Amino acid sequence: MAKKPEKRKLPEIEPKDVRKARKAQLQEWCEALDLDSSGVVAELRERLIDHLGSEEYLVIEEEEKVEEKKPKLPKRKKGQVYLYSVKGKPERSIDLPPAFVFEVRPDLIKRAVAAFQANRRQSYGPAPSSGLRHAVSWWGKGRGVSRVPRLKNSRRAAQAPGTVGGRRAHPPRPDRVWEKKLNKKERKLARLSALAATADPSLVALRGHRFQDHVSVPVVVDGKVEEIERTSDAVELLTSLGLYEDVERAEVKKVRAGKGKMRGRRYRRKKGPLVVMTAGCPGAKAFRNLPGVEVTSPTGLNAETLAPGGLPGRLTLFSKEAFEEVGRWQM
Predict the structure, then answer these.
(1) In the chain, which ranges are continuous DSSP H helix?
(2) Are residues 195 and 319 in the same domain?
(3) Mean pLDDT of 319-330
(4) DSSP character for 70?
């Protein structure tokens, strides 16, 4: 009885690997794929990339790959999100409250965030006598030198702008008002608009957050999440929900560009998920220790916490109680 021919296993290659590989590796791949292995590096790379994009290769590749089992999810209609258990499994679908279906207004959100940032600014400026603490006199005209005040018994200029130790010509004023006013209705509408953006997966992904496709946003977890006391349990929950990749993204610290590195803010870190729980629950301590994660209560939500930097669509995790409390918001 004739033996069945063994199925040839193709090498797993991606276009980015082809661009980095050297000539010997490129020739080896070409031989494995029954392609011409002669020519310069550029020709080999172009030949391989064209073949990898062909239908013939893609069909064979799909046959060799074992399809991963997708999690069975309960039915979810438009305007609904999953209610997840503490183990990270979707239990049922729940309706989004009216507070999450407002129109997303990036202009209002940006204006509200700018007002929050401006109202936190501390006024600064020199002392009234800075640069004026000199015993100086003016020589008068007709000496062929500049008409600036000079130190007593010396030719050295002082006190005037542009001189060593002199005053500044146009210094920042300590009495300047940095505050920006914002109407109450505008502030409320900006908050509701930023809240509605957390329910739009495209806006959440556009902010750079990383989460799996089957996750519904905002992420709503059963009330038992507020009883978690250990950070390891919080990590386990975020991993099972498919959100821990976003925490890992926020672990990277980068040195700030500019003079801010000398003013107590040397490092910058990306914003991770926002966790909203009822005030005073023990679960807040479990999540707040993770890099990039912020924990707040429904009363602490505003346009800036929901849309840091004025960019809407933050990845947000609600406990069921906090979700219901926020859902009752109105204009």
Answers:
(1) 15-20, 23-32, 41-52, 55-64, 106-119, 184-197, 201-206, 231-241, 244-249, 283-287, 303-306, 320-327
(2) yes
(3) 94
(4) P
Residues 6+ apart with CB under 8 A from 2: none
pLDDT at 3 over 80: no
- Tokens representing 244? 């821990």
Alpha-carbon distances of 89 from 71, 217, 242, 264, rounded to whole Å: 9, 14, 11, 42
Would you tell me the crossing angle of helices 41-52 and 55-64 to the nearest 10 degrees?
Answer: 60
Spatial neighbors of 233 by CB under 8 A, at least 6 apart, are: 286
Residue 9 pLDDT grade (very low, low, confident, very high; cuts 50, 70, 90) = low
Q: Structure pTM?
A: 0.73
Same domain, 151 and 300: no
CATH code of residue 89: 3.40.1370.10
Q: In this structure, what token pair is assigned to residue 19?
A: 């661009």
Each residue's pLDDT tens digit, 186-229: 999 999 999 999 999 999 999 999 999 899 999 999 999 999 99
Could you tell me the two tokens for 105? 């207004």
Identity at 45, one-letter amino acid code: R
User: Phi, psi at residue 219, to the nearest 5°?
Assistant: -85, 120
- The range of the structural domain enclosing residue 94 comes to 80-121+184-327
